[in-house]
């Protein structure tokens, strides 16, 4: 996928993998929103700093915010408002680590992300978390959205590269581990 002008959300941008995915997308020219999966002050400041670092003159600024990614209304509103601000949504990268709440947060991201991507004709959701995606794949496919996962605790840059590759060419339901060199 040529990321130039594509619209993407990185949920969990305060994590190592989330920062790496956001960096890779920004370098590839994506229109980007980065979202902390936790509404703590520390997470909010982290994504604000990252957004300032990734924003470039003469380009649309990187949007940044912090939400409770396990809260239904917070995720619904964030995805809808972000899609409106970006002019649609092509991809969502889920990198949040919320402990036991992570599977529920991924389900919310899939539900609302799929709705917005369906309006744009489809897209991709890539989870970079140790979460079973199989219960969510069919729901996403019904909206024309592919759901895939990258697993492993490797180098964040390798996880990010694999996540972008999957969003571009991956098959729905694919779960991959980056190669270790």
Q: What do you see in this structure?
A:
α1 crosses α6 and α3 packs parallel to α4. The chain has a single domain, classed as Rossmann fold (3-Layer(aba) Sandwich), CATH 3.40.50.720. The longest helix is centred in the middle third of the chain and has 18 residues. It has six helices and seven strands; from the N terminus they run βαβαβαβαβαβαβ. By secondary structure, it is α/β, with parallel strands linked by helices.
Fold blueprint:
Layout: E1 7-11, H1 16-27, E2 31-36, H2 41-54, E3 63-66, H3 72-86, E4 91-94, H4 102-119, E5 123-127, H5 134-142, E6 145-150, H6 156-169, E7 175-176
Give the tags:
seven-stranded parallel sheet; Rossmann fold; globular; 181 residues; alpha/beta; 7 strands
